[in-house]
Amino acid sequence: MRKLLPLVISAALGSLSANVFADTLTEIYNQAKTNDPTLLSARASKDSAFEAINSSRATLLPQINLTASYGFNRGEKTIPNQGMNDRNNDSDIWNASLGFSQELYKRSSWITLDAAEKTARKADAAYAAAQQSLILRVSTAYFDVLRAQDNLEFVQAEKAAVGRQLEQTKQRFEVGLSAITDVHDAQAQYDSVLADEVLAENELINSYEGLREITGIEHSDLNVLDIKRFSASKTQASVDSLLEEAQQKNLTLLSSRITKDIAKDNISLQSSGHLPSLTLDGGYTLTEQENSGPAAQDFDSDNFNIGLNLSVPIYSGGATSSLTKQAEFDFVAASQDLEASYRSVVKDVRAFNNNINASIGALRAYEQTVVSAKSALEATEAGFDVGTRTIVDVLDSTRNLYDANKNLSNARYEYILSVLQLREAVGTLSEQDILDINTGLKQANSKKAQS
Questions:
Q1: Residues forming beta bridges with residue 303, ordered by sequence position
Q2: Which of 27, 285, 292, 334 could covalently link to 263 via disulfide, CB atoms 3.0 to 4.6 Å apart?
Q3: HSE-CB for 271 with a 13 A CA cutoff
Q4: Is the alpha carbon torsion for 17, 22, 25, 30 positive or negative?
Q5: Using one digit for the tens of pLDDT, what is the confidence trace for 1-37?
Q6: Reading across the β-sheet that carries 277-292, which strands appear in turn?
Q7: What one-character-per-residue DSSP string does 211-256 give?
Q8: Three-class SS of residue 15?
Q9: CA gap 419, 363 in Å, rounded
Q10: Does position 451 have pLDDT exceeding 80, yes or no?
Q11: pLDDT at 76
């Protein structure tokens, strides 16, 4: 499966300036790892999920609180008919307390911790899936640029060929060897190719935007694939062995299994609302009161308490039973989602494996098509020179040749991407695949694509 690689598209980028050193696939991938928002978001979500484990574990640990307060009271007292003045009674009160609570038994806390750990595993799988997705997205965007670059070069080569045919037709018309309709046919074909060139240039510009979206960096020139080193081979492993491997390694399946496990735990979590809870609670309180006034006395006290608190739910209006049933339905949904994921993975593995085989067959056919189209064009041009073929035949043969070149180029890219897609479906796609492809890259030259 690792025998994918090279493909060349020669040419300078027309309206786009070239760098002294073109960007390699490895360089662009490394830039994407640093700048891609999707990957960075998945990484942050993973970190958040792992931090949630600490939050869930905290409820199982002692809870200790310290509180303090200060109060001031002022009272006035008048004793009538005794010849006594008003009395002021002022009090300063300081209070400090230290309390603690420790869960001894609460089933829901342990279930919540277990669910948090599984959620973290799911987030870890999601991050790994995002890494694999980035490999495929970068590769796809990279080859989209090369594909668009190939297409532009073939269109420009066709424009040059049709332009020569148009000039020859005009010369033949001037000496009476061709009709004016031949000139019009050649001119129409040339104008059509000019329109194709505009579209091809726009496609190339847009494909570079696809790379910039991932890396956040402008790119203007890329290393290309070397068709002399390119070879395509069928997957060595059987479909059954690929499916078996996918069941163990496919990250979507792994995530769906964890989701199902979490849904099952949620049933236990909701039903635990029927269970009692037991806590150990205690505290120490210190109070100091300073009084002022006639016959005032200060007051100090301290108090320590500790005890067991048992809470037994009796009736919650049916909420616990309802939430448990809801969790059971969620578990059924998660089970069906897992089955859907499995079927999707089976479909993808089979489809991408079929795509590889189809791409290999298409490559061989298109290689022969290019040879045949080139021979057909040469024969048609010779027939046109002696008057047995028309200019329309020549133009059609020219278009067929460049279409064949374009199809051959696309087939190579489709083969490479199909291999990567299969590896992602199986769950074995890694950075090593980027390195393998990168070894087949080469600096683009300034020659136009050969016809």
A1: 285
A2: 334
A3: 10
A4: negative
A5: 444 433 333 333 333 333 445 789 999 999 999 999 9
A6: 63-77, 87-105, 277-292, 299-311
A7: HHHHHSS----B-EE-TTT------SS-HHHHHHHHHHH-HHHHHH
A8: coil
A9: 14
A10: no
A11: 63
pLDDT bucket at 268, cuts 50 / 70 / 90: very high
User: Which amino acid does the sequence have at 52?
Assistant: A
CB hemisphere CA count around 94 (13 angstroms): 5
User: Quick one: DSSP state of residue 4?
Assistant: -
SS3 278: strand
- Could you tell me which residue, 163 or 293, shows the higher pLDDT? 163
Q: Treating both helix axes as pointing N-terminal to C-terminal, what angle do 251-271 and 319-386 enclose, rounded to 10 degrees?
A: 170
Q: Is the dihedral of CA 56, 60, 62, 67 positive or negative?
A: positive
Average pLDDT, the chain: 89
CA dihedral 183, 396, 401, 144 (to 10 degrees): 90
Distance from C-alpha of 445 to C-alpha of 281, rounded to nearest angstrom:
79
At 14 the pLDDT is: 37
Residue 281's H or E segment, with its range, is: strand 277-292
User: What pTM value is reported for the model?
Assistant: 0.84
Residue 45 near residue 123, CB atoms below 8 Å: yes
Helices 251-271 and 107-174 pack at an angle, to 10 degrees, of: 150
Helices 239-249, 319-386: crossing angle, 10 deg rounding: 140
Choose the CATH number for 25-63+104-278+319-439 among 3.40.367.20, 1.10.10.60, 3.90.180.10, 1.20.1600.10.
1.20.1600.10
| Rg of the chain over all Cα atoms, to the nearest angstrom | 39
CA angle 81–85–89, rounded 5-degree value: 120
| Mean pLDDT to the nearest integer, 158-162 | 92
Helix/strand/coil percentages in the chain, nearest 5: 65, 15, 20
Q: Which two tokens stand for residue 111?
A: 């279930």
- Residues paired with 222 in a beta bridge: 23
- Where in 19-121 does DSSP place strands (E)? 63-77, 87-105
